[in-house]
Specification:
Bifunctional enzyme that converts glutamate to glutamate 5-semialdehyde, an intermediate in the biosynthesis of proline, ornithine and arginine. By secondary structure, this protein is of the alpha/beta class. The chain contains 23 helices and 26 strands.
Length: about 750
């Protein structure tokens, strides 16, 4: 805990030797000393007269939060001219109205021309008000701010430089936020051709160069330059092919075309890039981002410091492989080529991958052993996750069998005609299946997921981006290598990409222009996080697997214990494992009930009592904290219901629409349950564990979906397809079908082509 005045605040461990900039965004969270440069377009209103108070307040809040974490924050701000212009305009209007009233004797104002205001005069009038505003805002967070005005001459005079440096260090030592601006009231014109003559020379002719100069002088870790554009684009923003550059490297200037300056301010993007590269050369990391966008300005600074993909990050270290954006584009191009192959060729790729899983068994298991050893040594994985991480010969054999099923069933998946309609004479319409596009599959601790999902993507002609957990890095690497080896037999190696860069999942979920569907495979927390982070990209999956088994009064004694044991104990970590056991009230204190309890005890299943079940017992197990709990282990909840109707209502209230089961010999009761339970999978006298793509005969699954649109339940090839419409005509125009036209709509259904019998 550090203290300044009487305000305590928590510090975070931040320290590093200055001299080399951060290589990756993920390292920015270690930045100790940070300069935030606020461009004129960020600070001023759209009319360029007055300040954007809401935006400024949000920036002050973020800076204050970082300051109270123990960081040393400095602000280089514009805005004095705009604030002064507002004040001077008000004074001129007031003065003119008084004179007009005196001379005319009328109180009514006529049109009054406002003279062009000189920028230096506006700066002189606005500096004090701007600083007073900053002080008032920072006071709300118990932080003191101090104003420093500088000119280019202050950096050329060695004594003044030392004085400035000493002042800033002393302010930072006292936990004060320095607010620096060029002294625009007296600033001379910039000196020509004096920029970038070496690390120690840069002309301060705008706040971009001032911020860069200050960052290097103060050995700053990070410089954040906020403007009115998202960052640096490869061509002027707004042009058709303009793409935001995520990471910019020295020497990349040749690939960039600069546009015009912002609506206000001295420096355009070219000036910002020059200043950023100069600061980078001096050992300071730089990010240029948008500080005006209403959806992100409230957290843009903190997002940058947390390492999120915001704006353009300047780095001296080029990655060895392609960026994730490039990988997504490669996957889309590869997917389109894949979709254009003959069905037999796609099947051949999957058969080849199945063969490689068994042929290269020893190499795969060796890589998996490394992952298991590292996970056990670090102790970061719970036992259920370790089980998911583990591969074995039998698992690989099952995988290969599943892949061959996919290959066999994929012959007519892409391009299949599902509807034909004759709109009019010689005008026929077809609806055909096509791939969705580019899939992003994010999975944890499940290396066997990689070949399964890859095979389904290949069969459906989709491009694929895979993001596996780092705990399975070695296994994923070799499995992806084998997948690309199989794809290579028909020249579509790039269709499946494994993301190995330091991309955060949240950043991947923002690539809405490159990714068409996200499929999470992992914990309920992972799925919830992805559903929350995905902006504009559909997410297919389920956040929880709260599966129920209801034991009816007419249940068979022989079936009950077998189905419950298999549902709960066969693989308790699975999302289709039993979590809540519903028992009809009439079965309490019967031999059947005793058999269920004895079996669960033998299997070492910890029992939690639901509220109604607990009320029937003198000494009950621990009462459940929530009836919406996914245990993922040898634990379950038991609750009592009065009827099948109450069981259905309980499932709808507390379930997750995943898989729910009834055990009964009464067909009428069973049909009521099957028809009324609104879940993706509803079973009668069968284990919840059958809810699986392989067991359904789909070969494999990309996941189990509990959503109600497009695909539901175990999702195989069919769930990875969408449709498009093909219309074949002969000089048809809509005007021919008007009231007085020569043609009439027929809308006749036509027979579908014969499907491949194999």
């Amino acid at each position: 805990i550090r203290r300044w005045s009487n305000i305590p605040f928590i510090t975070v461990p931040l320290s590093r030797a200055h001299g080399k900039s951060f290589a990756h965004r993920s390292e920015l969270k270690h930045a100790k000393r940070i300069v935030v440069k606020l461009g004129s377009a960020v600070v001023t209103r759209g009319d360029e007269c007055g300040l954007a108070l809401g935006r400024l307040a949000s920036i002050v809040e973020q800076v204050s939060m970082l300051q109270n974490q123990g960081r040393e924050m400095m602000i280089v701000t514009s805005g004095a001219v705009a604030f002064g212009k507002q004040r001077l305009r008000h004074e001129i209007l007031l003065s003119q109205s008084v004179r007009q009233a005196l001379h005319s004797g009328q109180s009514q104002l006529k049109d009054m021309a406002i003279p062009v205001l000189e920028a230096r005069a506006c700066a002189a009038a606005g500096q004090s008000g701007l600083m007073a505003l900053y002080e008032a805002m920072f006071t709300q967070y118990s932080i003191c701010a101090a104003q420093i005005l500088v000119t280019n001459l202050d950096f050329h005079d060695e004594q003044k430089r030392r004085n400035l440096n000493g002042t800033l260090h002393e302010l930072l030592r006292m936990n004060i936020v320095p607010i620096i601006n060029t002294n625009d009231a007296v600033v001379p014109p910039p000196e020509p051709n004096s920029d970038l003559q070496g690390v120690n020379v840069i002309s301060v002719k705008d706040n971009d160069s001032l911020a860069a100069r200050l960052a290097v002088e103060m050995k700053t870790d990070l410089l954040i330059v906020l403007s009115d554009v998202e960052g640096l684009f490869d061509s002027p923003p707004g042009s058709d092919d303009a793409k935001l550059i995520d990471i910019f490297y020295p020497g990349d200037q040749q690939s960039v075309t600069f546009g015009t300056k912002s609506r206000v301010g001295m420096g355009g993007m070219e000036a910002k890039v020059k200043a950023a590269l100069w600061a980078l050369q001096g050992g300071t990391s730089v990010v240029i981002a948008n500080g005006t966008h209403p959806k992100i300005s409230g957290h843009v600074i903190t997002d940058i410091v947390e390492g999120k993909k915001v704006g353009t990050f300047f780095s001296e270290v080029k990655p060895a492989g392609p960026t994730v954006e490039q990988q997504a584009e490669m996957a889309r191009a590869g997917g389109r080529t894949l979709a254009a192959l003959q069905p037999e060729q796609r099947a051949e790729i999957i058969y080849r991958l199945a063969d490689l899983l068994t042929d290269q068994r020893e190499e795969i298991l060796l890589a998996n052993k490394k992952d298991l050893e590292e996970a056990e040594n670090k102790g970061r994985l719970a036992l259920p996750l370790l089980k998911r991480l583990s591969l074995s010969t039998s698992k690989l054999n099952s995988l290969a069998i599943g892949l061959r099923q996919i290959a066999a069933s994929s012959q007519d998946s892409v391009g299949r005609v599902i509807r034909r309609t004759r709109i009019a004479k010689d005008l026929d319409l077809e609806q055909v299946t096509v791939p969705i596009g580019v899939l992003l599959v994010i999975f944890e601790s499940r290396p066997d997921c990689l070949p399964q999902v890859s095979a389904l993507a290949i069969a459906s002609g989709n491009g694929l981006l895979l993001k596996g957990g780092k705990e399975a890095a070695h296994s994923n690497q070799i499995l992806h290598h084998l997948t690309q080896e199989a794809l290579s037999i028909h020249g579509v190696r790039d269709a499946v990409q494994l993301v190995n860069t330091r991309e955060e999942v949240e950043d991947l979920c923002r690539l809405d222009k490159l990714i068409d569907l996200i499929i999470p495979r992992g914990s309920s927390q992972l799925v919830r996080n992805i559903q929350k982070a995905a902006k504009g990209i559909p997410v297919m999956g389920h956040s929880e697997g709260i599966c129920h088994v209801y034991v009816d009064t007419d249940a068979s004694v022989e079936k009950v214990t077998r189905i419950i044991r298999d549902s709960k104990c066969e693989y308790p970590a699975a999302c289709n494992a039993l979590e809540t056991l519903l028992i009809h009230r009439d079965l309490l204190r019967t031999p059947l009930f005793d058999q269920i309890i004895d079996m669960l005890r033998v299997e070492q299943v910890k029992i939690h009592a639901g509220p109604k079940f607990a009320s029937y017992l003198t000494f009950s197990p621990s009462e459940v904290k929530s009836l919406r709990t996914e245990y993922g282990d040898l634990e379950c909840c038991i609750e009592v219901v009065d009827s099948v109707q109450e069981a259905v209502e309980h499932i709808h209230k507390y379930g997750s629409s995943h898989t729910d089961v009834i055990i009964t010999e009464n067909e009428k009761t069973a049909e009521f349950f099957l028809q009324h339970v609104d879940s993706a999978c509803v079973f009668w006298n069968a284990s919840t564990r059958f809810s699986d793509g392989y067991r359904f005969g789909l070969g494999a699954e990309v996941g189990i979906s509990t959503s109600r649109i497009h695909a539901r339940g175990p999702v195989g090839i069919e769930g990875l397809l969408t449709t498009k419409w093909l219309l074949r005509g002969n000089n048809h125009v809509v005007s021919d079908f008007s009231e007085h036209g020569s043609m009439k709509y027929l809308h006749e259904s036509l027979p579908l082509p014969q499907r491949n019998a194999s």
